[in-house]
Specification:
By secondary structure, this protein is α/β, with parallel strands linked by helices. It is 35% helix and 25% strand. The chain is globular, with a radius of gyration of 23 Å. The site of cytidine-5'-monophosphate has 15 residues, from helix 13 and strand 16.
């Protein structure tokens, strides 16, 4: 009953994913939440309000200008009642109208009128999602503090494949739980690195690693939700900054080290999640190298180890490393824990398909000097919460 005594206002937009919202109501209710539903007129073309009324146990609100409904629970009361306002599915249209601050129907009016945190779960055709207008609107909403959960990628109702699927109801319900989870990291300052680094060869080429940054960004988002003050040093990745997180963008390992060392003094926790290039080019060419010979050689020099540098500080934060291995995972991870003098290491087996690099899910074996725990495969967001929970516990 992790959502006991929580009032969740669920906004349903007019998209095919609206049929999943019925299941979402159930998932929220079975966790103890009180759920009230607001629907747009077009949402009612996809799913009957009666279904949602039966599942939520409350009349569905849909009309801003209906005197009877307003008398029962007006839009301002509804907006005040909510502890969390979740809009799922959020169509491109709703997102655009929210971005513009429009109050032309009940759902977007509630979004303006509520002081509760607002969550958007986008659901639309992949082309619409990727359109610059939608991306701009989402970024703008996010910069104002709106939480964006998802979308997933995959096959769509329209027959296309790509990003734009609404997160599954169970996933959304779990994130709601996480949202209200105890603020285990309240008052803690947490610094983390995420994504790859890029080491220039010449002005147009570089060497780098496979890393989407998803795990690090999930950790940053989750840590902020758990009350931490988060600084995220990010290599080049294509991910939006999680709400409430201070982000410092870098390219190379040296820049990442510099940014970390500048921030590390006042930190309580440091998590090195970045896939840092182990070597950089000894002599970066000033002009583009022209191709001529059949083979060419590049001299490489070792990059500084950011994690080991932090772990060697006299007043170091609680220092957590990651180990991506393809074999003998536990052996190498334990060795790394000891050699780099870490407080904890999270190891993942990157030889397993669909896990780790660029994937949305992952599994971790977490090891610290006098204990260990397996965190089985799940989405990176849930996993991030579990790892941070362990850090709070062991620290
Ligand atoms: O030794 P290895 O690169 O496998 O260690 C991985 C861990 O060390 C990760 O936590 C990674 O972020 C960190 N690391 C680092 N700086 C480097 C190399 C790795 O912080 N130059």
């Amino acid at each position: 009953m992790s959502l006991k005594n929580k009032n969740i206002l669920l906004g349903i937009g007019g998209g095919i994913a609206a049929y999943k919202s019925a299941d979402l109501v159930r998932r929220l209710k079975e966790r103890g939440a009180q759920v009230r539903v607001v629907m747009t007129q077009s949402a009612m073309e996809f799913i009957a309000p009666l279904t949602l009324q039966a599942l939520s146990g409350h009349p569905v609100a849909s009309d801003l200008l209906d005197p009877a409904a307003e008398a029962a629970m007006g839009h301002i009361e509804l907006a005040r009642w909510a502890d969390l306002f979740v809009i799922a599915p959020a169509t491109a249209n709703i997102i655009a109208r929210m971005q513009a601050g429009m109050a032309d129907e009940l759902l977007t009016t509630c979004a303006l009128a509520t002081a509760a945190p607002v969550v958007i779960c986008p659901a639309m055709n992949q082309q619409m999602y990727q359109h610059a207008a939608t991306q701009h609107n989402l970024q703008s909403l996010q910069s104002r503090g709106t939480h964006i959960w998802g979308p997933d990628s995959g096959s769509q109702a329209c027959g296309e494949v790509g990003p734009g699927r609404m997160l599954e109801p169970l996933d959304i319900a779990k994130r709601c739980e996480g949202f209200f989870a105890e603020k285990l990291l309240a008052g803690q300052k947490l610094l983390l690195t995420a994504g790859p680094t890029r080491e220039a060869i010449d002005p147009v080429r570089y060497i780098s690693n496979h890393s989407s940054g998803k795990m690090g960004f999930a950790l940053a988002q989750k840590a902020a939700e758990m009350g931490a003050e988060v600084t995220l040093v990010a290599g080049p990745v294509n991910l939006p900054t999680p709400a409430g997180v201070r982000r410092i963008n870098v390219q190379s390992a040296q820049q990442m080290l510099d940014a970390v060392m500048q921030a590390v003094a006042e930190q309580d926790i440091f998590i090195a999640c970045a896939a840092v290039a182990d070597y950089r080019i000894a002599q970066v060419a000033e002009a583009k190298i022209k191709k001529s010979a059949e083979t060419m050689q590049l001299a490489l020099v070792r990059n500084p180890d950011i994690l080991a540098t932090v772990a060697a500080l006299q007043h170091k934060p609680f220092t957590v490393g990651f180990a991506a291995e393809t074999h003998d995972v536990e052996h190498y991870a334990t060795d790394k824990l000891q050699r780099k003098k870490l407080d904890m290491i999270a190891a993942n087996d990157v030889s397993i398909a669909g896990q780790g690099f660029n994937a949305d899910s992952n599994a971790l074996k977490v090891i610290w000097p006098n204990g260990s725990q397996d965190l089985p495969a799940t989405d990176k967001h849930t996993l991030a919460g579990q790892l941070l929970g362990l850090i709070a516990q062991v620290k």
